[in-house]
Amino acid sequence: MIQNIRKVALLGMGTVGGGVYKIIEKQKNELIHKIGAELEISKVLVRNKGKYANLIAPEKLTDQWSDIIEDDSIEIVVEVMGGIEPAATYIKEALQKGKHVVTANKDLIAVQGHELLELAKTNHCDLLFEAAVAGGIPIIRPLNQCLAGNEITEVMGIINGTTNFILTKMSEEGMDFAEALQLATDLGYAEADPTADIEGHDAGRKLAILASLAFNSPVTFQNVYTEGISKISAKDIRYAHELGCEIKLLGIAKNTEDGIEVKVHPTMIPQSHPLAAVNDSYNAVFIHGDAVGDAMFYGRGAGELPTGSAVVGDILDVARNIQFHCTGRIGSSCYKNIPIKDIKETKSSYYVRMKLEDRAGTLAALAGVFGSNNVSISMLLQKTKDEKTADVVIVTYDVLEKQFMDSIIVISNMSMVKEISSIIRVYH
Amino acid sequence: MIQNIRKVALLGMGTVGGGVYKIIEKQKNELIHKIGAELEISKVLVRNKGKYANLIAPEKLTDQWSDIIEDDSIEIVVEVMGGIEPAATYIKEALQKGKHVVTANKDLIAVQGHELLELAKTNHCDLLFEAAVAGGIPIIRPLNQCLAGNEITEVMGIINGTTNFILTKMSEEGMDFAEALQLATDLGYAEADPTADIEGHDAGRKLAILASLAFNSPVTFQNVYTEGISKISAKDIRYAHELGCEIKLLGIAKNTEDGIEVKVHPTMIPQSHPLAAVNDSYNAVFIHGDAVGDAMFYGRGAGELPTGSAVVGDILDVARNIQFHCTGRIGSSCYKNIPIKDIKETKSSYYVRMKLEDRAGTLAALAGVFGSNNVSISMLLQKTKDEKTADVVIVTYDVLEKQFMDSIIVISNMSMVKEISSIIRVYH
Description:
The structure is a homodimer.
Chain A: E1 5-11, H1 15-35, E2 38-45, E3 61-62, H2 66-69, E4 74-79, H3 87-96, E5 100-103, H4 106-122, E6 127-128, H5 140-146, E7 152-158, H6 161-173, H7 177-186, H8 195-198, H9 201-215, E8 225-226, H10 234-242, E9 245-256, E10 259-270, E11 282-289, E12 293-300, H11 304-323, E13 347-357, H12 362-372, E14 377-385, E15 389-396, E16 399-400, H13 401-412, E17 417-426
Helix pairs in contact in A: 1-11, 3-4, 4-9, 6-7, 12-13
């Protein structure tokens, strides 16, 4: 019956590569029906062939890229090594040879995605990367195809599982940041060097990709403002709850009249918002389009099998496209060039917690500084008080970041202000 | 620059047709970039041409199907009339003429979908119907493509907005069913004859389509067990809250070892489950796959623009496929023929509320009947008591529907049982 075999090379057998391998082996017979051809992993590029001798037939294992790039029977290259090099070089060489590429590499796509998509287009090749954003959650096809009739004005999400796990533990069990991070490390959610997660860089890369797709205009990681969660305290989370909010690390991208805003930062979000209920290591992407209204996509943003699921979905699509001679059908969707706004030019509402000297006139002086910078106060709460200082929480109305920060500089130099303890943006 | 025009005929200008028309008019210039061709609505089939004279150019309006089927320049037929006939005939004639079809018609697809997809395949045509399930929520491409590497074992959801609105009002504001239904009618959420929504038929049609896609095996509306929400009382919702649950009208499809289960019924679901937080007229579809784990898709399941968004997404995909000469690329995904289980052969946990005579031995007799039918009791709560009767709530462990119903027949005939007030299935 089946006369076709579509040959795939897998670059890397780490967590994601292992997941892809397992899924394809398990689903082998099903896939024949789904793509009308047999899918064969004919080469696997690894550093140490001995390590996989028990799992993979020796003739399939190689430590030489030349064994893959020079093998004309291989039509699909699946890059799951991660990192910029040699991944970037391998992908370029594959595309130049007319091989289709599936990658899970967000570091690379967030920086060189636009260039690589152009190269794919020139060579009539598919370059798919569903796994690079929000792991197993289907998001790229929904954006590029299902919602293509929409003008999307906002895409935001919880797109880093490690930090969401940490914030969930802080919120639900009252842990402080260090304790929750330790637990995340012990459970294998956080890496030995957790910087990329904790500081929002990982989320920033995914947001750059999402914003490009949603707004049809190039956005790279360098354009994204990032701020991490290491300064969030148990006290801020308690106060957030009192305000009816949760604190989440959100990636927020908006297409406004005067440009694109792209930022990752801890955010107070009302408990009634669907994203507020996304807990543990789950991810979710929330979209607002002019026709569809609000939509949300929820699931596992990382892990061997969820990420493998997204990679395999892409491989099957490429295989189907090859069968139907229509590779390159949906390539780069960036046909605009919208300017990107500096964080200082964006607007937000802010939560500020500070320690003030407890004497007459302090609040009036504070309100005066905010007022002269056009910062309107929506709420002022005087919290715990000891002999001489008071813990004060202020929530502002929406204001330009520049004006808010100008007022904070003045306030932090006032003699009655003992400490600006924390500043967190609030999403309405 | 643009040498191509893809011509579309719209059958129907009701709610959905109007939405499709508006979106395409608004996005005209964007769509050129997205599909590489201009999209033109060249004919609109309506019953009363006079009604649309102000909106649509007279040469585009027609009340004759022959004007469309005989026009060879029309490549895409968009059926948004609803109902079985003449929609079914028009779709068949269009496919036989090699025209591609996009439809939002769940009534038709839930019954004749498999046959129509075969016809599309024979004619190398696309037949897309994203809008037929969960309105604007992208779900068909995610299932058919993004998650194609998964064995999906469960798909369930809140797929009727009217009943979800009613249950939300009952849960949040303590309304009873009649009051909430009246509000839904006043707000235009419920139709003049709300039977199809209230009795779960609308949800059943969508579930049949979802199950077919998820399990790659034909499931039609006739296979779906349906039970509506008209018997749900404010008291049951109060008790559900006490048990940490919400009551939702769920469509539940499972692929089990001995066959497919497909059922729509009011369900108690733990408040911690993501579906429990889906409120008002929002819809959500929850999926479990062996690789991706749990995933959920949330958004507007109905309405002019959300449903229009899904239809337009499909039209753009067909247009792209025409540009790349690869229509018919993803057709029927039903390559299996899995038996479908009768509701009596399915398992569930049950909540039963009943009025009992308040005398010694009543509970023991009850427990005896359950026990002899292999029904294990997980919880028994004695609620309000008046002089002679007690309101008793029992929650069972998972049990075969057949065995549970056998025990209920015996119990309802016992002299000390004054009334079986309600029976609601419980989802763990």
